[in-house]
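Researcher: We're teaching a course module on how sequence relates to structure. For the next exercise, students receive a sequence and then see the predicted structure as C-alpha cells, so they can try to spot secondary structure elements on their own. Here is the exercise chain.
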Amino acid sequence: METVESKEVSVSISSYAEHREQTRVSCALAVQVHAPAEDVLLFTYAMNISHRGVYVRANRPLPQGASVSLDLQPSTPTERLTVKGVVVRVVDQEGSPRGMGIVFSEMCSNECEALERLVSRLDNRAMLTVADAETYSRYSNGDISSF
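Model: And here is the predicted structure for the students to work with:
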C-alpha cells in the first residue's frame, strides 16, 4: 500500500476510491492542473467535485501519487481558487471518461471555506436544474394543477 503524505493530509492511495466520505456534485468546472514534477500544465474541466477532492478529465492522466496544483475556475473570476492535491485514482480505459481523481491536500481554513462555498453553490445549481426539468416535464405533459 502506497501512502502519500503532506503537511496536513495523509492519503492511502489504494483505499481512497472505496472510502469516499463526501457526496460528489456533478459539474463542468474549468480547471487548470499543474504538475511541476511531471512537467505538465493541463487545461481541462472537472466532472464532479466534493469538499475532499475532484475528478478531472484528462486524455493522458498523470500517475497515481503525482502532486498537483489545481486552479479551480468558476464562471465568476473573483471565485477562482488554487489548491494543492494528489492524484489518487487514474481512469485510462477506452469507453470510460478518461481522467483522474485528485484528493485535496495542504488546505488552509480560508481555502476550505472557499471550497465549501463553491461546492454548495454548484450543488444548489444542480438542484435547480433538476427542479426546472421536473417543472418543465409536468408543464409539457399538461399537469398544471401544481402551479
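Model: If you want an answer key for the exercise: The domain at 3-140 is CATH 2.40.10.220 (Thrombin, subunit H). The chain has one domain: 3-140.
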